[in-house]
Design a protein that fits this description.
Number of strands: 16
Structural class: alpha+beta
Radius of gyration: 32 Å
Distance between the termini: 53 Å
Strand content: 5-15%
Bound molecules: zinc ion
Helix content: 55-70%
Shape: flat
Length: about 600
């Protein structure tokens, strides 16, 4: 697919970067920029910044950056052309049809699967509302009509072919319905309905598409839950149930993660509107990243049975690795969130949220649980584990509180625990020092990085930014310093593009410039350049910045000429050598 320059500009212009990024994560306005937690690296405090003026994003943490297309490439894992096609579609821009045949087929197939799922969701929804037994069942589980509608719950009839008949009548294709996971083939090569006599929970992605279903029986028959298999449009480990409802909440403080659909729905019914379900117990890093886009604090509220406990620990470590602030909500033995909130109500559940344990508390709690206080060896082992957890805490008051508490309980003196803690810390710092040595050796290779702080580079950066959004100023600057006056190659390249834009009489925006850069590395560097603000004070300093570039150029020129002069001198050409010497003297006069 060929994208003309005009088309690319139109696509980039019509997709406001703040709008697009907001569809993937929570952004807060801070001054001129919008900031949030970087979706591309693990962090607890936001260093990801989006500028509406410049139509660029930049992360101070991992230095990922670029325009709206770069963002889409990164977050949707797309190639550059794919991202343009994706954005064109979002903005309703027609782009010819010379898409590769294969891509087109794939996209068509996915569209078709989405359509089948949508039809199925409507069908199940209608079924539910005419089936008294199913409605009674949901009411008996405490759900209101409003909640049933909000989650689009449905019912699959007690029949082998009721959905199949719909597929045939609508011409949706049995084979397609089977690849959507809704029909299954029997031994006689005949299709039948996968979901029968079940309450249906549509699984909806962040764009509002129905991508899969979960089905639950209303009695004790097995299996209790039946879910769509993974399909071309659904992968269990990549989605989170009801995040589509939670993501729009303004100033979301935290998200509560439960295991089952019913738990999440029940919590919503009772007013806990930030609950999501992890679709099975195997929590994945994709899901962690997805959650982190919308809230930094994640509270896990899994069942208190052993399976739930070990799932909690796994989930915690994955979330922690992704840089989330994780907490654990502890339910009374044998209860799940659905049962608890139905029996006890909203306020007691809110208390559980308030009392949810930090990761540290939860870890200690778990060690503590398995300790037999009568066994001295076990008490000692616990203290070692405690020391290991405490060495990660910065606050001395917090450490002191834990030590006091467990000194009493384990009947081991506070001094002994402190001693244990100090030893653990020493072991850890030794380990870290080794890392530092490695780091500093790799720094030697970053000479370019050290030069980065030079005044010359700052002057070049400032001048480039002054050209943005101001054509006459850009003309003024580039009349006085040609692109090859810039000594850093990326600056030179950007200046060339600005020059081109001036000649074409086009708007000079950072997003536009980035379009012209060939590779990702360049785009990343450019995004970093554009990430500085131009103040009025900078504008006053414009002449001196230009002068800096001139000076650097003169310096370079003198170096070149000196080399030449020496060469002529050595071959005995005194005249040429003297000529060059005069040139050098003239330049020296211009030097400050
Ligand atoms: Zn980052």
């Amino acid at each position: 697919m060929f994208f003309s320059e005009e088309l690319i500009s139109e696509i980039i212009e019509k997709n406001d970067i703040v709008d697009i990024v907001s569809q993937y994560m929570n952004l807060k306005k801070r001054g001129k920029n919008h900031i949030g937690l970087c979706p591309f690296h693990s962090e607890k405090t936001p260093s990801f910044s989006v500028s509406q003026d410049k139509q660029l994003f930049y992360c101070f943490g991992c230095s990922e950056g670029g325009n709206v297309s770069t963002f889409i490439q990164k977050i949707e894992k797309m190639t550059y052309p794919e991202s343009l096609r994706f954005l064109a579609e979002k903005a309703g821009i027609e782009i010819g049809d010379d898409v590769s045949k294969e891509d087109l087929e794939k996209a068509k197939k996915k569209q078709n699967l989405l359509r089948i799922n949508k039809e199925a969701a409507k069908f199940f929804y209608k079924n539910l509302h005419v089936n008294t037994e199913a409605m009674e069942y949901l009411y008996s589980r405490g759900l209101s009509l409003e909640t049933i509608k909000k989650f689009g719950l449905g019912f699959s009839q007690n029949s082998w072919d009721s959905f199949k008949r719909l597929v045939i009548a609508r011409g949706l294709g049995e084979e397609s319905a089977s690849s959507a996971g809704l029909l299954v083939k029997n031994n006689n090569e005949r299709y039948y309905d996968r979901f029968r006599n079940r309450i249906m929970f549509p699984i909806i992605d962040l764009k509002g598409n129905v991508i899969a279903f979960g089905g639950r029986v209303m009695d004790d028959s097995k299996p209790k839950y039946l879910n769509s298999p993974d399909t071309p449009i659904y992968n269990k480990g990549f989605n989170i149930y009801s995040l589509n409802l939670v993501k729009g909440i303004q100033n979301l403080k935290n998200i509560i993660v439960v295991e089952g659909y019913m738990d999440a729905i029940s919590l919503h019914q009772y007013g806990i509107s930030n609950a999501v379900a992890s679709l099975g117990t195997a929590f994945t890093e994709h899901q962690a990243r997805l959650l982190k886009r919308y809230a930094n604090e994640i509270i896990i509220a899994y069942d208190s049975d052993t399976a739930g406990q070990s799932a909690t620990l796994k989930g915690l470590s994955i979330l922690e690795k992704e840089g989330c602030n994780v907490k654990v909500l502890r339910l009374p033995r044998g209860k799940d969130p659905d049962e608890f909130i139905r029996r006890e109500g909203l306020e007691p559940f809110k208390k559980l949220i308030e009392n949810s344990m930090s990761l540290i508390e939860y870890k200690i709690f778990n060690f503590r649980k398995s300790i037999n206080l009568d066994d001295i060896q076990q008490r000692v082992k616990f203290i070692k584990q405690l020391a290991n957890v405490l060495q990660g805490i910065d606050s001395p008051a917090e450490i002191d509180a834990y030590i006091k508490k467990y000194s009493k309980e384990m009947q081991i003196s506070e001094e002994a625990i402190y001693e244990e803690l100090n030893r653990t810390k020493k072991r850890h710092t030794n380990g870290n020092n080794r890392h530092n040595i490695l780091d500093s050796s790799s720094d030697i290779n970053k000479v370019e990085g050290k030069r980065a702080i030079s005044g010359e580079q700052i002057a070049e950066k400032k001048l480039i930014n002054m050209c943005i959004q101001d054509k006459s100023r850009a003309e003024n600057i580039l009349n006085r310093v040609a692109p090859d006056y810039f000594s850093f190659s990326i600056h030179q390249r950007v200046a060339e593009i600005i020059n081109l834009k001036i000649k074409e009489g086009k708007l000079i925006s950072a997003g536009e410039i980035i379009i012209h850069l060939e590779n990702e590395e360049e785009r990343k560097k450019a995004a970093e350049i554009f990430n500085i603000e131009i103040t009025n004070h900078d504008l006053e300093l414009m002449d001196s910045y230009i002068d800096k570039l001139w000076q650097a150029r003169i310096h370079k020129k003198i170096e070149e000429l000196t080399k030449k002069m020496n060469e002529y001198y050595e071959i005995g050409d005194r005249d040429r050598s003297n000529e060059i010497f005069k040139e050098i003297m003239d330049l020296q006069k211009k030097k400050k």
